[in-house]
Amino acid sequence: MIPQEYPETKLSKFVISYGSKNQSISLLPLACDSQQVSLKPFRDYSASLNLKLDHASRPLWVFPDGLIIVETFHVSSSAACEFLSTVAEPLSRPELIHEYQMTIFSLYAAVSLGISVNSIIETLNKFSKNEVPDVLVKAIISHCKSFGKLKIVLRDGRYFVEASNREELSYLLSDERIKLSRVYSGTSFQLNSGEKSLQGTSNDEFNVSEAPLLNPKDLAFKITEECQVSNNGSTSANIYSFEISGDKVDLVTMISFVDLHRPLLSEYDFRSDHRNPSLDITLKHTTQIRYYQEYALRMMFSNGRARSGIIVLPCGAGKTLTGITAACTMRKSILILTTSAVAVTQWRQQFEDYTNVDSRRLHCLTSGTKDSLGPASEAEILITTYTMMAFTGKRSASSAHIINQIQEREWGLLIFDEVQFAPAPAFRRINSIVKAHCKLGLTATLVREDDLIQDLQWLIGPKLYEANWMELQDRGYLARALCSEVWCPMTSEFFKEYLNCSHAKRRKLWVCNPNKLKVCEFLIRWHEQRGDKILVFSDSLFALISVAVALKRPFVCGSVDILERIKILQQFKQNPNFNTIFLSKVGDNAIDIPLANVVIQISFNFASRRQEAQRLGRILRPKPYSNWQKKSLSASIENTEDPVNETSYNAFFYSLLSKDTEEMQYADKRQQFIIDQGYSYRVLPINSFPLDNENLHFSELSAQIDLLNKIKASDDLLSDDEEDNVLTSGRTTQIDNMSTRYPKVITTKSSLAKLSGGDLEISIKAQNDQIISGALNARPTKLNRPVITLKQRSNKAKISDMHSMFRNFHKNKQT
């Protein structure tokens, strides 16, 4: 590859030219995401691509560096995308063009599923418009020759390294450290350094057994015609193995992966495990899984064993049920790790709803619930959090006892909910605490803003399946979400202060921009009148509490007691007059609010793509059209001024941004993951909303000045956001009193009654161990919501100037 000058563009100084005579093999990346690709210079493929005569009848462009572009409007694109989902990583999947990148890890995942090298190359050539470049073919062969050849299996409490041919095992044993870790058949001890092999045994004598095959009767779900997956098990009639010492498993895995470039696939022969007790659990007859869940599970159990790996499903697509179905298939002791105590409660409830498991076999370990496990002779299900398992400080007696029980037991399945948190340094020790036969990672957003996401390939296993968000939306398994970005100019007083203050205060100013808060209040009122369920997200605790109290709506943050959190969420789900709650970042993950269909975001965690996708996911549960949509459907279809038909959407995502601030830059980066899934953001100017004569709280100049003064009086420390233990390192200070420490926002004790017009007294300077109460009381018993008046309009917000969604609403109200 030779960098050449590229004068035709101002965006990049160089372009990479492919097809150089010196380039003998393609340089595939280890892993990849869309942000890394966007940083690459332009690439010139003109010298390396040879079009086929029938190129018009094929859907793929295959490039020398492993980049693959799919024309989804082609008749055979569906089959091509299904193939690519197993051998490449999706980068961008909008409506007409999909972009994939073949990586070393994606090839590792493909080979681990039993796909041969010849099959990969032949299928690429079948769908490709151009001849598959020789450098890419050589790269595929070079990388795949060492993948999927070796497996580590835990059987009857003993660890075996298996392969379909003797040569791979002999190569592994060529390393002296692995050789010394071997336990020879017929012996109960391992050889020490310098000792010779026993008579009758040698390093090339291995155990021989028949290769396992998938028996559909062993699955906890029925195989449908829609999800017919070929058996990806070994094609060899026999498999060869040798035993290794249990305390050397981590060492052997590390040496194989890092030094010998032979990753060990982790598989569990659960059908032959007679040592560990079986769990009496099956799915209820009323429980039905969807086709994509079935496909993912077939990838996990395709060869009759449980294969460790990661399943990626969109938010709201049923990751929990997928994990539960895997547990019902294996029927061994199950340990589930999730992100919060609320999520623990939800997992337990899902087990009770979807399975017939005895509730006495379900145990929870949180700060408030410490269920002791039964004897090791009985299979159990334990649900806990990452922080509880990774805590290294002094525990209470009850917690320490349960942790000891966990360490003494062999677990059939270890489920990592929101697996993107698992690579955090503090959570890696969980693998050494829990002895698990099989590990399953579940997530919707397999992205991190660091490089640690790559470590999941050996911490958990390869990616087994990743669903297409747009495909599930089109088939009705996800809500149709409309994403909007609202640009709110700063008021003159706030912008003047913004230009002359510290970074900490600048962030509070762009978050608490009065124009942004006015739009937030208007959207809350407008969607509440429609009967929608609304979530307002704010990472800034200052803004969260100030706005929630001012608008008389309940809020949930880390310092709200767990019982009050559950009470608020239950009211939100069950009470038709309880339509809005304010959430901090504690609401980003693992909270089940299926009725929510509106998200308003006023503050966020800088450029986190994961958080943006998780917040959108809060409203992606499938839901029917509302009565309002049905009534206005015909009127909206007749409207030709706006190409977007709002009534075809049943979920709404608003990101409120302060113009001409750093917030705009962060928002652009945050949206990248969602855009790559096929979504798009429309931009709404502030004059799309009739704000002037609506009697909004933050329209009052006195309220704006009061808010500005409070920001000026606050400290300059970047402590306004509550600590996100799971996202960072998992540190916690009081593991048995799991109240997130409430940060200082204002240095003096004050009353928010003056700001809100209410009578709620709250101490802004909270103590480090204080539990905030009254979050639910912020909502009055009777909500005297100001009704949006339609008789008088501002000159700046004429009906004809509004966005069509609001224009249709006001026209209907007038008639």
From TrEMBL:
Main location: nucleus
InterPro entries: ATP-dep_DNA_Helicase, ERCC3_RAD25_C, Helicase/UvrB_N, Helicase_ATP-bd, Helicase_C-like, P-loop_NTPase, XPB/Ssl2, XPB/Ssl2_N
CDD domains listed in its UniProt record: DEXHc_XPB, SF2_C_XPB
UniProt record, GO biological process: nucleotide-excision repair; transcription initiation at RNA polymerase II promoter
UniProt domain Helicase ATP-binding: residue ranges: 300-464
Pfam families per record: ERCC3_RAD25_C, Helicase_C_3, ResIII
MF terms (GO), sorted A to Z: 3'-5' DNA helicase activity; ATP binding; DNA binding; hydrolase activity
Family: Belongs to the helicase family. RAD25/XPB subfamily.
UniProt-recorded name of the protein: DNA 3'-5' helicase
The organism of origin for this protein: Cryptosporidium muris (strain RN66)
Lineage: Eukaryota, Sar, Alveolata, Apicomplexa, Conoidasida
